[in-house]
Design brief:
By secondary structure, this protein is α/β, with parallel strands linked by helices. The chain is built from 9 helices and 11 strands. The chain binds adenosine-5'-triphosphate (ATP). Adenosine-5'-triphosphate binds next to strand 2 and helix 1. It is found in: Cell membrane.
């Protein structure tokens, strides 16, 4: 792996909440220009990892470099280079979609005329032009993801982090998101997104990091991690298929027990 240029690299990343170790020494690697998937079962530590990597949550230990820059040492530089679509995205609800983009652009110090031009392009490609003057509070889940992604892309970041970007998004909107992201990585930028949907990760990603119980249990090019199996099979093998030991407690469930 010596010749990989890394967009993201963590070493020994660590986070505890009380007694619980959420992230227990993670060495995450994301090569530059990759479309990378971060997968893992519920509670594996994906959101906690992404929150630390994007400077939203302070780690208890470890190092994070994005584009070779220490995230927690040079936050202003890092924030200009990354875009983030966090889980449970909070947006300024009382702005319209267009106003939200304009506000984000101005916060980033982009000249107003440039912001307007970029915003129009993003609204168009996200199929949000008609809804551009509607308040964000009235947007559907999919529309919120799309305007959130537009806001995250407006300053043309080098690395884009997306936490569950396709959750609650219909197939048509998901397709739009995929097209935008593929165009973005084709130009050499990097995307890392977390997901539970293995088929999607398998279809989109060329690099996969698998987390389980706060650790990276496999990481590398998709083909290496899959090792000739479907990603879903590989994933179940890596994280351990649950043995169904709790089934007896559900003997009441279903028609035969009535
Ligand atoms: N703020 C918090 N306070 C206490 N525990 C937390 C907090 N955030 C996360 N955890 C715990 O840390 C562990 C990892 O959570 P995290 O949200 O990072 O997992 P995840 O892989 O993103 O899960 P999911 O796929 O369900 O979103 C979980 O056991 C969770 O309960």
């Amino acid at each position: 792996m010596a010749d990989i240029v890394e967009a993201v690299r963590t070493q020994g990343l660590f986070k505890r909440f009380g007694q619980q170790t959420a992230v227990g020494g993670v060495d995450l690697i994301v090569p530059q220009g990759s479309f990378a998937g971060l997968v893992g079962p519920n509670g594996a530590g994906k959101t906690t990892t992404l929150s630390m990597v994007t400077g939203l949550l302070r780690p208890d230990g470890g190092l994070i470099h994005i584009d070779g820059v220490d995230v927690w040492r040079d936050q202003v530089v890092i924030k200009s280079r990354i875009g983030v679509l966090p889980e449970g995205l909070r947006l300024f609800e009382r702005l319209s979609g267009r106003e939200l983009l304009s506000y984000n652009g101005q916060l980033r110090g982009i000249p107003r005329a440039e912001v307007e031009q970029r915003a129009e392009g993003l609204l168009k490609i996200m199929d949000l032009t008609e809804a551009a003057d509607k308040l964000v509070i009235d947007y559907s889940t999919g529309m919120r993801k799309k305007i959130g992604l537009a806001a995250a892309l407006l300053h043309n970041p080098k690395v884009l982090f997306l936490d569950e970007p396709f959750e609650g998004v219909d197939p048509v909107s998901a397709n739009t998101l995929v097209e935008v992201l593929q165009r973005y990585t084709a130009s050499g930028s990097t995307v890392i997104f977390s997901s539970h949907v293995m088929e999607l990760v398998e279809r989109l990603c060329d690099w996969v990091s698998v987390m389980n119980r706060g650790q990276i249990v496999a990481q590398g090019p998709l083909e290496t991690v899959r090792a000739g199996r479907s990603l879903n099979e590989a994933f179940l093998g890596l994280v351990g298929v649950r043995d169904g030991g709790g089934e007896e407690g559900l003997s009441w469930l279903g028609a035969t027990s009535r």
